Amino acid sequence: KTSWKSFSKKERAAIVDCDKQKMKATVSATVAIQHPFEVNDDDHCETALEAYRDAVPMLNRIAELLGKKPGALRIYDPYFCAGAVVKHLGELGFKNVYNKCEDFYAAISEGRVPAHDVLLTNPPYSGDHVEKLLKFCKGNGKPFLLLMPNYFCAKDYYESEIGRA
After folding, report:
1. CB-based contacts of 23: which residues, under 8 Å, 6+ apart?
2. Vertex 115: Cα angle to 143 and 96 (nearest 5)
3. Which end of the chain is more exposed for a tag (fewer CB within 10 A), N or C?
4. pLDDT tens-digit map of 16-61
5. Which among 148, 16, 7 is positioned nearest to 79, based on CA atoms?
6. CB-neighbour burial class of residue 18 (10 A; exposed 0-12, middle 13-18, buried 19+)
């Protein structure tokens, strides 16, 4: 707020206009995508770069433990929205990101889950998506980073799927 007040009216208007243009471009990109699975519009919001920035120390540590450079770490995000995760993680030095417009649950049942070192996702919160994801993560044998609100930790299924922390 303090820095916002330091901008002139003209500068603030330019910032707001730029934000509106970015939001419009994001919405148009998302609307044009034909998903091969049922979509709940409330679930389809791209994750901000800042959220991925928060995950960088963990991703770097996982890469280190695996003896890999961060750029070689194979990151899997099974939930496709409009593909911004590839761009965002690429900007942060992670170039090997798998996030395609495909049905995650079909990939599991057909044995088509891509090879990966770590799963990183902001899953859809509706329906039973989180419960299904936790089941997958538990049996996957790979590290996982889930970007989601902490109220999921209080869900009945959470402890049975993940175990006590």
Report:
1. none
2. 85
3. N
4. 888 777 766 655 555 566 655 666 655 557 788 999 999 999 999 9
5. 148
6. exposed
Which distant-in-sequence residues (6+ apart) come within 8 Å of 129 by Cβ?
43, 79, 123
Locus of tokens 């003896």? 67
| Nearest-angstrom CA–CA distance, 110 and 36 | 15
Q: Read off the pTM.
A: 0.75
| Residue in 122, 110, 31 with CA at minimum distance from that of residue 78 | 122
Ordered DSSP codes for the chain: -HHHHHS-HHHHHHHHHHHHHHHHHHHHHHHH---SS---GGG--PPPHHHHHHHHHHHHHHHHHTT--GGG--EE----SSSHHHHHHHHTT---EE--SS-HHHHHHTT-PPP-SEEEE----STTHHHHHHHHHHHH-S-EEE---GGGGGSHHHHHHH---
